[in-house]
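[Archive record]
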Amino acid sequence: MIQFSLRCENGHDFDSWFKSTDAFEKLVSAGMLTCAVCGTSNMKKAPMAPRVTAGRRDDDAAPRDGARSRGTLATPDGPAQQALAELRRRIEAHSDDVGRDFAHQARAMHDGVTPARPIHGEASHDEARALAEDGVPVLPLPLRPRDKSN
């Protein structure tokens, strides 16, 4: 695996992992790599410094001497990220978080074992596929699980 710093035609910077340089080139040429902020598929590798991690402590990871840290998807910068943040806020405000018990809870409600209510949580790919194949109405969301340390 190799990590590249990328920049879209609109100047948005982000990092991503690829199997190889060839894999990156194939994805870019096929238009299958898009910017998470603006959605454009026109991007290139940005200049990047090598990353050396041997012996690095956690407090060494923070930017020093006024260095600007790169934006992350954790802090909404553009309209797409703001819309996802608002979607998350609404989902969390109007449903119960059942965490990793999502598949079990969704199936129990579908089968009439427990009363129906709005829920959200996490399911593995296999669990989600089994729910969909059994007609359980579920919707995968484009949201990453929250960091449990916050």
Q: What stands out?
A: Confidence is low (pLDDT under 50) at residues 59-73. The helical segments are 21-29, 79-93, 102-110, 125-133.
